[in-house]
Amino acid sequence: MECDKCQKMQKNRAFCYFCGAVQRLPMCAQCGKQKCIPKGDCVVKHGSAHVTGLAMVGAICDFCEAWVCHGLTCLQMHACSCPMQDSICVECHRDISEHGGRMFTCAFCAKHLCGDDQFEHQASCQRLEAETFKCPSCNRIGSNACMRCKAVFCDEHAKRKGFKYTPGQPIPCPKCGHSLDQAFCLSISTRQYAFGRQRQNLDEEGEGGDYSDYDDDDQADEASSEGDEEGEDENNVVAAMGKIDLHGREQ
Questions:
Q1: 5, 64, 126, 246: most buried by Cβ count inside 10 Å?
Q2: Using only C-alpha atoms, what is the Rg of the chain?
Q3: Residue of 133, 228, 240 whose CA lies nearest to 185
Q4: Is 76 left (phi over 0), alpha (psi -120 to 50) or beta?
C-alpha cells in the first residue's frame, strides 16, 4: 500500500510504519476489498448502503497488524491462515511490531528473518555442525543435507522405516521433518577448528606433520620465558639500588 500522508510504499498494515498515520480507505487483508456491499456475510449490518473506511473494519490481525473487514468469512479464516504467525526472527527473537514488518525467509533452513539479520544469518547458515560430510548414523559419506539440523544423511538413513513417502516430493528429514536436498552439498562447508591437530600445515602429499611441527612454537615460548626472567632480574637490581645511600651504607 501507499501511505496517504508520507507517500511511502509498504506492506498492507493498519497504520503507516513511518509516520503512524491511519489510512483513509483501509484494505482487508483477507479479501482485499475497500468497500463492503450490502449483500455480504457482514457481522455488522449496514442496510442497503455501501460502507468504506473504518465502518468496514471488523478487526485487526494480531500477527500481521492489518485490517480485516467485518465479513464473517474473513474474520474466521484470516488469523488461521495468516503467513505472519511465525514472524519472530530466529536471530534477534523480535516480532513484527519491533523489527518493522519486513520478513525474509532463509534460502537454506527456511526460517523467518528480519531485515537486519538476513545477510548475516544466511552467510553462517551454509555450514555443517561436523568436520566431514559423513552420516551421523553409519559414518558413511552422505548426500542428503538438512540445513536445520546441519547434518548430512546417506541414502539409507535418510528414509525412515514404516513411513510412506510421496513420489516426486523431497524426502523429509528423519529428525526435524525439514525437506532434504542434495543441491546444498555443493555450497555448504564443514566446521573448522583453529587449534590442535588442524593447526598443522599439510605437506605436498596432503599428510599432516609430526611433533616437530610444534618446535617453532616451543622456541617462541622459551624466548618469551627468558625475556621474563631478564625483566625480573632488572627489577631486583633497581630495588636493591634504592636501598643504598650515597655513603655506601644500606638503609
A1: 64
A2: 33
A3: 133
A4: alpha
* Distance from C-alpha of 125 to C-alpha of 148, rounded to nearest angstrom: 9
List, for residues 219-236, the tens digit of each pLDDT value: 555 555 555 665 666 666
**Domain boundary, last residue among 60, 84, 108:** 84
The mean pLDDT of 190-215, rounded to a whole number, is 55
DSSP letter string, 16-37: -TTT-PBPSS---TTT--SEE-
Q: Does residue 250 carry a pLDDT above 50?
A: no
- Please provide the average confidence, as pLDDT, over all residues in the chain: 75
Do both 7 and 70 map to the same domain? yes
Residue 251 pLDDT > 50, yes or no?
no
Strands 57-60 and 103-105: unpaired
> Which residues have C-beta within 8 Å of that of residue 39, sequence separation ≥ 6?
none
- 73-106 burial, b for 16+ CB within 10 Å, e for fewer? ebbeebbeebebeebbbebeeeebeebebebbeb
3-state secondary structure (DSSP) of residue 104: strand
DSSP-assigned states of every residue in 173-200: PTTT-PBPBSGGGGT-B----SSGGGGS
Residues 73 and 11 in one domain: yes
> What residue has cell string 599428510?
207
Using DSSP bridges, classify how beta strands 103-105 and 67-69 pair: parallel, antiparallel or unpaired: unpaired
Which residues, other chains included, contact 89 with Cβ-Cβ below 8 Å and sequence gap of 6+? 99, 112, 113, 114, 117
Task: Report CA dihedral (218, 221, 226, 229) to the nearest 10 degrees.
Answer: -140
Residue with cell 483477507: 30
